[in-house]
Structures are given as C-alpha cells and as structure tokens.
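User: Sequence recovery, please. Input:
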C-alpha cells in the first residue's frame, strides 16, 4: 500500500515518510481539537454529539494538516493536495449540476482557472507523444496545441494528425541561428514544452523564453547514460555493457546542456541476465508510457 501511494504521489522515501507523518499528526490534532470543542459544548454523548463531532473534524482537518505541514517542510505538497481535493469536489458538484441541466459538455471548459497549452517536440515514432495526446484529450486543464517535429515522415506526424493536433515542421537554420521558433510558439499560445524523443539540442533563445517550462524524458537513470549521442538503443546497449542490474527513466527540466537539467521524477525497472537492448528498451518504454503523462499532469496542476 505504501509503495503504491509513494508512486502515486511521485515522492522519494524520505519525503513520503514526512508526508505520511504529516497526515498522521494532522489527523490526531484535528481529533483532539474536535473532542475539545465538543467537551466545551456540554452536549451528552448521543447521536447528535457524534454527528456534530464528525462535521467539526471534517472542517478542522484541512487547517490541521496545513499547519502541521509547515514545520514538517511539506507545505507545498499539502497546498497542492488540498487544492486538487477542492478541485475534485467542485468538479463533482458541477458535474451533477450540469448533468441535471443535461449539458455535460460545458464541463471541460469551466472547471479550471487556466488551460495550459502544451507543445510536444518529437523526432521519432512518437509513442510517448501519443500517450500524452490520449491523456490530454478533453482534459479539464491541459491541451496539446502543437507537435513540433524536425523530421518529415516521422511517425509522430501521423499520430498528431490522428488526434487533430497541428504539426510544425522546423528547420535547423532558424532553430539554431534564428529565434528558435519562439515567436511562432508564442503566436500559437504555447505555455509549456514537453520533449518526447526530440533529438536536437534546445537553443538558448527557447530556454530563455520558457524558463522552467521545458521538460524532457530520458530512457535511463540520469546522471548516468546521458549526454550528447546517448539516445535510442545506444543508451540500453551502454547500460547492459556496464553490467547494471537496473535501469529506468528520468523526467527532468531542460537546460542548455544535454540531459543535465534538474530532475523531476525517476522510476526504475530490473535488468535480468537474459535482457537484450531490445527487451530493455521495451521495459523502459512501458515505464515511460505509464508515468510520463501523469507526471506532466501533476507538474501542471501545481503551477
Ligand atoms: C523515448 O525512449 C524517450 O525516453 C527518448 O526518446 C524515446 C522516444 O520514443 N527521449 P517514442 O518516439 O516516444 O516512442
């Protein structure tokens, strides 16, 4: 159960322990306050007493966990957690209201303050891009507005057209020596960039225009097996040649150096003696498909 929660919240073990302790301490504090207030009310312990106690505890709970989260250093997690919980409650309320009026379609556009528009940069088959497009079709606060590709004929172009996402084919000269397509991206109202198998280095102009708003997925556990030339099968071959017993994925912010930006998330998979570069690639791809869309969603729900 703990492992599942840890993965769901994308936390390291030390942080998971702090978050879990905050839940426990916040819950105890709120039970204590509830009993104290009920004691002051002088009510006898009958059905009404317990109903009022439950209402009080429900109302106190968010304040208690938020208060405890501050000394535990977990305030950002709990602020986002409560925000999401509140968002879900509002959504449920709206859903039932709209269902009542028979107009469910309004839902997708009314329940989030700002819709984030993503551009997916990809050069290859596009299986990760596909997972992202599937996840964010009719999503309440994220949409894929553009696929940016540097290779005519790449598989990702067909996937984009299947999902009715426009494609921008870019050329080297303008990307590296021009404005990095910043103007075009801004004209298309792109808020956030996700690299999913994009093989060109991101130019400084683009990094400056999208600070902390460009992320990449790498098919290994950075800081190992990254950097220039480490892509595709080469990564898995290097991992196996080094005799590693596990590999995995890294999702990280993009800076001006290949695969060196601040890490956001990692997940691992075991390597067996029977593994080949192909079978390892399959395991890593499965991890990517499972986690990438969720990590993007979580990241964007926190901004
Ligand atoms: C993925 O393995 C990703 O980690 C790397 O490029 C690959 C893209 O695969 N950056 P696909 O095109 O999404 O199938």
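Assistant: Recovered sequence (303 residues):
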């Amino acid at each position: 159960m703990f492992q599942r929660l840890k993965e769901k919240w994308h936390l390291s073990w030390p942080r998971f322990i702090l978050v879990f302790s905050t839940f426990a301490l916040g819950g105890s504090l709120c039970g204590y306050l509830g009993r104290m207030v009920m004691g002051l009310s002088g009510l006898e312990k009958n059905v009404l007493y317990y109903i009022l106690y439950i209402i009080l505890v429900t109302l106190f709970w968010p304040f208690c966990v938020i208060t405890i989260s501050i000394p535990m250093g977990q305030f950002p997690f709990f602020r986002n957690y409560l925000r999401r919980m509140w968002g879900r409650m509002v959504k449920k309320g709206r859903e039932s209201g709209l269902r009542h009026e028979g107009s469910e379609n309004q839902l997708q556009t009314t329940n989030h303050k700002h819709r984030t528009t993503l551009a997916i940069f990809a050069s290859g088959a596009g299986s990760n891009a596909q997972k992202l497009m599937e996840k964010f079709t009719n999503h309440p606060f994220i949409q894929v507005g553009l696929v940016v590709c540097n290779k005519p004929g790449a598989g990702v172009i067909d996937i984009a057209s299947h999902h009715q996402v426009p494609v921008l084919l870019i050329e080297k000269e303008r990307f590296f020596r021009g404005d990095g397509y910043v103007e075009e991206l801004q004209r298309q109202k792109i808020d956030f960039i996700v690299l999913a198998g994009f093989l060109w280095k991101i130019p400084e102009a683009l990094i400056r225009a999208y600070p902390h708003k460009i992320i990449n997925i790498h098919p290994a556990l950075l800081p190992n097996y990254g950097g220039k030339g480490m892509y595709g099968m080469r990564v898995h071959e290097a991992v196996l040649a080094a005799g590693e017993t596990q590999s995995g994925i890294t999702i990280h912010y993009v800076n001006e150096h290949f695969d060196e930006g601040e890490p956001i998330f990692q997940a691992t998979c075991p390597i067996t003696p029977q593994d080949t570069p192909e079978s390892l690639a399959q395991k890593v791809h499965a991890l990517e498909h499972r986690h990438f869309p969720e990590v993007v969603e979580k990241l964007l729900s926190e901004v």
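Residues 122, 124-129, 196-197, 217-219, 288 surround 5-O-phosphono-beta-D-ribofuranosylamine (CB under 6 Å).
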